[in-house]
Amino acid sequence: MFPNLKNPVFTDIGDLNEMARQIRRDIMNMLLISKSGHSGGPLGFADVFTALYFNKLNILPEQPYADFRDYVFLSIGHIAPVWYATLARRGYFPLEELKTLRKINGRLQGHPAPLKTHGLPGVEIASGALGQGLSIAVGAAIGLRLSGKPNHVYCICGDGELNEGQIWEAAMTAAHHNVDNLTVFVDRNHCQIDNRTENVMKLEPLADKWKSFGFEVFEIDGHNMKEILDTIDKAKKVKGKPALLLTYTKMGRGVSFMEDNYKWHGVPPNDEQGRVALSELFPTKFGDFVDYYNGK
Amino acid sequence: MNFIHKTVSCLVENLDLKNPELKETRKGFGEALIELGKTNPDVVVLGGDVSGSVRSDMFRDVFPDRFFSVGVSEQDMMGTAAGLSVVGKIPFASTYGEFATGRPFDQIRQSIAYSEMNVKICASHCGLTVGPDGATHQSLEDVAIMRVLPHMYVITPCDYNQTYRAVIECTKIYAPFYIRFYRDNSPNFTNPKAPFEFGKADTLLNGDDCTIIASGLCVWESLLAAEELAKEKISIRLINMHTIKPFDTDAVVKAAKETGCIVTVEDHQKKGGLGGAVAEALAQEYPSPVEFVGASDTFGESGKGSELFEKYGISKRYIVEAVKRAIKRKK
């Protein structure tokens, strides 16, 4: 029933890692241009986004709302730059448009905007106010199952976001209804805006919490491409209950002075910091969408 | 009672103001859900542990596969409904008025209104008539906070017949809806054969001394007030404003021009609801004397619905007084 999806785009781990690095470069360039936005989370989850969009998802960028598509819900709307860069790299819209992040009259809103208002291909629904995405993903999964459709639903949550009560309401709903066409990622980077997560609101023992809520939990290294790919497959095979990938990452991954530092949650690099960041994320075969420092 | 014969056909034939048929508006919701269940396979219903109270259990018992319990978690219910809408379902999310609006406001704002999801929020047990349960359960702000949300339709049917029709009709428009109704038996007096269109107010009485614009249960209360006023030769134009958004500004301006003054009546705070909508419309289009009947910046308390309408100034005699005040203010 699927048309030629040209997916996976890459099967080689080296290619996938290189694309993830390019997406990190794109994120830095987007933030340098917009001078506003979040650095840490987007860099930290670039590997998972690459694994999904360049290997695992049943999607067709030319038909972003095709009936057979897998659904991706980004509950942590503030890491939008990694989503936008990934969608552009995958062909959902022109790379050039990445220059419009957070600019007026653009589609790349600071937090993902709904289709009807801004029409960015690949986005299903608004997110930004935290804690809402899992409920939406569960609703979509229940609806798809009711229709007898094979589409799979992915939801990306943060760890700081787990402070929100609605997440746990949704967790109960997912387990109560034995939702197994859903895979949840929790970006476990131990950082949120104010401080380390365990200082702001203790989350541990986090894997046990999710298990006790009825989830099959996989703990993975969110920067190990092979482990991400393999575990997505395993999670998809779980029957009768929802699956969750507790994905250990480093906020700001790939940029030494940002790594594992909660202060990089919500700020962009300045020009000097950007220069260092781009030198550490050395160029790839895919090429940049902009030459920021030479005004091109 | 000949004043009723001046009206168009929005009222049932041979309406007996002393002994009207009594029916639950919430049962109109339940019956309409069953009808939708039969005719529209995309309709699904979410239960928030009060499905018996809001009458969505009527749907559950006939279509158990399309009914999903989410427990007492209104925020999750709104998000789940949004997700069902993303994949093409028409979800009905229903609970008591306060918990359908105040508790999950942010979820409604972001995941439903901003995202323009096809979610139908249906709230029972609204206003003061939940009586003995007290102020925590008496939603008197729900219309105001739903009305400020872009994209949201806000519907306040006045009886069983109109609740039934609103629930059926809302599935024909791809948009988020808030439909407000009640727990108790109340007079069922609108003509099910009369035209009914969202955003087009119904004129029930065609008098010319003053216009009463009422919503929900207060439409009946206003009919009784009009009967009282007729005895004093004051003829009332009575408008049933069943749609608070999109608002029928034309009907309000026409009434103000033709009758010279307006009284608004609602089982809700005076501020921000129907009264607010009328005042905004007239201030912009045709400034006129307006008197407001409703809750005066106060919470309710336990008591019978009729006692509370009396204590909080929403009963017939307050409407009569407001009409007289409004007429005095006419130029």
Summarize the structure in words.
The complex is a heterodimer of chains A (296) and B (331). Chain A is of the alpha/beta class. Chain A has a single domain, classed as Thiamin diphosphate (ThDP)-binding fold, Pyr/PP domains (Rossmann fold). Chain A contains eleven helices and five strands; from the N terminus they run H-H-H-E-H-H-H-E-H-E-H-H-E-H-E-H. In chain A, strands 1-2-3-5-4 form a five-stranded parallel β-sheet, sandwiched between helices. In chain A, helix 1 packs across helix 4, helix 1 runs antiparallel to helix 11 and helix 6 packs parallel to helix 7. Chain A starts with 12 loop residues before the first helix and ends in a 16-residue tail after the last helix. The model of chain A has no long low-confidence stretch (mean pLDDT 96). By secondary structure, chain B is an alpha/beta fold. In chain B, the strands form three sheets. Chain B has a seven-stranded mixed β-sheet, sandwiched between helices. A five-stranded mixed β-sheet of chain B has the order 9-11-10-13-14, sandwiched between helices. In chain B, strand 6, helix 8 and strand 7 form a beta-alpha-beta unit. The longest helix of chain B is centred in the first third of the chain and has 15 residues. The radius of gyration of chain B is 19 Å and the shape is globular. Chain B starts with 21 loop residues before the first strand and ends with a helix. The N terminus of chain B is likely disordered. At the A-B interface, helix 6 and helix 7 of A face helix 4 and helix 6 of B.
Query: Beta fraction of the residues of chain B?
Result: 15-25%
CATH topology of chain A: Rossmann fold
What is the number of strand segments of chain B?
14
Assigned CATH architecture of the largest domain in chain B? 3-Layer(aba) Sandwich
As a whole number of angstroms, the C-alpha radius of gyration of chain B is: 19 Å
Instruction: Please indicate the percent range of residues of chain A in DSSP E strands (runs of 2 or more).
Output: 5-15%
Q: Summarize the biggest pleated sheet of chain B.
A: 7 strands, mixed
What is the second-level CATH architecture of chain A?
3-Layer(aba) Sandwich
CATH class of the largest domain in chain B: Alpha Beta
**Broad structural category of chain B:** alpha/beta
The tally of strands of chain A reads 5
| Mean pLDDT level of chain A | 96
N/C terminus separation of chain A? 43 Å
Distance between the termini of chain B: 29 Å
Q: Low-confidence stretches of chain A at least 5 residues in length (pLDDT < 50)?
A: none
Give the strand order, joined by hyphens, for the main sheet of chain A: 1-2-3-5-4
Supply the CATH superfamily name of the largest domain in chain B. Thiamin diphosphate (ThDP)-binding fold, Pyr/PP domains
Instruction: Please tell me the overall pLDDT of chain B.
Output: 96
Spatial order of the strands in the main sheet of chain B? 3-2-4-5-7-6-12
